[in-house]
Amino acid sequence: MSASILESIRTADWLDAGRVRGYAVIVGIASIALLVNSYLKAMGSDGTDFLAFWGAGHVAATGDPAAAYDLMVQERVQTGTGSEGWFAFVNLPPFLFAVAPFGVLPFPIAWIAWVLVTFAVWAWASIRTFPRLWVLVLVFPGALLAAGHAQTGLLTGALLVGGAVLLDKRPASAGLLLGALVIKPHLALLVPFWLAGAGKWRAFLAAGASAAGLLLASWAVFGIDTMIAYTSSWEASRLIMASEDREFYLRMATPYSQFRLFMPAGLALAINVAIAFAMMAISFMAWRRMGQDALASGALVLAATALASPYLFNYDLPFLILPLLWLVSEGLRHGFRSYERLGLVLLYFAPYATRAAALELGVNLMPIASLVLVRLIWTRGGSLRKQAGEPVSSP
Questions:
Q1: Its pTM surpasses 0.85
Q2: What is the pLDDT of residues 121-134, one digit of tens each?
Q3: Burial of 163 (C-beta count, 10 Å sphere; 0-12/13-18/19+)
Q4: Quick check: 142 and 351 in contact, CB under 8 A?
Q5: Number of domains present in the structure of the chain
Q6: Is 3 among the domain residues?
Q7: Residue 10 lies inside a defined structural domain of this protein
Q8: 226 Cβ partners below 8 Å, 6+ apart?
Q9: Could you give the 3-state DSSP secondary structure of residue 311?
Q10: 6 inside domain
Q11: Residue 19 belongs to a domain
């Protein structure tokens, strides 16, 4: 390979703003086609994950929220749409506040409304954070994958991005958003360590109050029967995690799921727990490592979040828009490192590409992409500490 080609790969200077916009248009057109295809499949006989949310919202809106966790009721409600498949609802009762408004709509309209609303909320939070990079937000493959599944990733992504953005100037508001992750608490696993390490006690207390408040509100609105019925979903969750279906693990994006392909469940879980502890330590150190920059520390913690939980799918990853675009912003301001431009392109497409290739490769490479993302942000942190006037030890 000639020196000029190697230099072109190393710097990727040809990847300018004009080309990025042009490629984004192509990705956007292809994504619309994929979304239409996803919608048509969701309306078919096989069903879609969104049936669980719509079915739970439907019974909650009609006055029987405890039935959200009744498998016989859910089978009847969900197959009433014409689907032969149906899905257990395993989210905590506060999530019923989010899905009940969509449960009053016919299923085909509810699917569209859910995707549009959650995508709009996520895009609004992300574009406000990186207004110059709005085109990269709108066509982010990780978000489009979540949209195609009509899953929760866009909603939880908006909470994580919003919490990171508000942490510095409005810590209480940031805490309220992060506490709302009680609807999917394994995505908030690193949040307490991040806030404690940063000394952001207002945000810490607000997050706790938000989570507790949502639980109490769901108790008050949906009743004690619903809270008790939720415990019956634990068995469904246990059976999901005890699955021996190889394709199920290939659809997941965690270290546990990929180790599970090659080793016993206990050993795979032990390795993931060790990784989670490492990510907790990184999150605790994020504030100082990233020069006491709230957004930078948030980028590091959100990247680490993709490695911490044993249960995570590629469609849960819209929150990675923040660490990715933070790296892009740093590169535009201070210069890109060798091979970083092309590396960021690969990481940008990773949530979709790793899922699409998983069945063929026999492994989902998303955990490796997440690890690279953590490493890139961590190494950028040294320059931020220099700007903050702190000593930086040699690696």
A1: yes
A2: 999 999 999 999 99
A3: buried
A4: yes
A5: 1
A6: no
A7: no
A8: 65, 66, 68, 69, 93, 96, 218, 219
A9: coil
A10: no
A11: yes
